[in-house]
Amino acid sequence: MKHEAQFRFRSDKAREIFRAVSPETAAEVNPRSRAECRYEEPDTLVLKVSAADVGALRASLNMWLRLVSVAQEMQDLIIDQERTA
User: What domains are there in the chain, each with its CATH number?
Assistant: First the structure.
């Protein structure tokens, strides 16, 4: 894989976000890209995406960044609901 991008997300819900998105790495079967996701104590999610070409990197990043964003949004909704309950 020639191209690579790495993102570090700091959040007090990083562990929960990791648990939400990490199963997708096992299910990924794209031959042109690969993603790794890990949790670093106490509050960091690390996402590393590698790809054979720039187009594959862009497509994979679009998917993974959206997954992380949705997982964070869901955590925010849960927190809001707990506060109003």
Answer: 3-84 (3.30.310.50)
